[in-house]
Amino acid sequence: IAAAHHDTKDLLSAVQSTLVQRHFALVTGFDAHVKPFIEFVTYFGEPLTYYGGTEGSHPEHPAIHRVHYDPQASSRGELHAMDGPLDLHSAQSLRDPRPGYFCMLMVHPGWQDQAFGDNGESVLASWSKAFDLLQARDLAEYQRTREVLLAPVPFPDGIARPLAYRLEHAESESDLGVRLKYDLLDHLLAQGGKSPAFRTVMALQDAA
């Protein structure tokens, strides 16, 4: 959807229609400034501040979490400022309930001379397709995997949460929400790496 070809009302209508049909929408040429961005996403609900604190938050609005390489911040271990790939994860994974919508705005494309997935771009994975693939590979194993996914798993913050949860308007049995924190696998590995949850996260990452 080209933002330049729509006024705000028409753009909003086009995005809403696409979300209903495909569950995601790509808008090109959107104004890369805070005020119009926040005004637009507010049509879908109240923008939420980042639960991880102010680290990485935009100075003009706390609901915007900036991802930008910064050598000094990276050396301090600040995730939003690091270079290199980020492991498979679902955004705002510790929120309960998780937001109904997520929005990302690319302000600067950065380098573009690397292979797909290595230019800083976001690569989206379909959880339902991952579950369908696991089911097709081995039905009995998938049923065991599903039980582990829906059972509480210890997260790095010490709270046990289900990895997957049922959606209010699920379109199939495979249409589950997923709360996968980027460092959950490392956390489970540090605990020995022998739990069913560790094997389940490995299988889910492989399928996605």
How would you describe the overall organization of this protein?
Helices cover 33% and strands 9% of the residues. The protein is built from 7 helices and 6 strands. It has helices at 8-22, 34-41, 71-75, 127-137, 139-149, 184-190, 196-207, and strands spanning 57-58, 61-65, 152-154, 160-162, 164-166, 176-178. The protein starts with 7 loop residues before the first helix and ends with a helix.
Low-confidence stretches: none
Order of helices and strands: HHEEHHHEEEEHH
- Decide which structural class fits the backbone: alpha+beta
Tally the helices. Answer: 7
Terminal Cα span: 26 Å
**Strand residue percentage:** 5-15%
Gyration radius, rounded: 19 Å
State mean pLDDT (0 to 100 scale). 88
Largest beta-sheet details: 2 strands, antiparallel
Question: Which key terms come to mind for this protein?
Answer:
two-stranded antiparallel ribbon, 33% helix, 208 residues, globular, alpha+beta
Short description:
The chain is an alpha+beta fold and 208 residues long. Helices cover 33% and strands 9% of the residues. It has a two-stranded antiparallel sheet with strand order 1-2. A two-stranded antiparallel sheet has the order 3-4.
Strand and helix map with partners:
Layout: H1 8-22, H2 34-41, E1 57-58, E2 61-65, H3 71-75, H4 127-137, H5 139-149, E3 152-154, E4 160-162, E5 164-166, E6 176-178, H6 184-190, H7 196-207
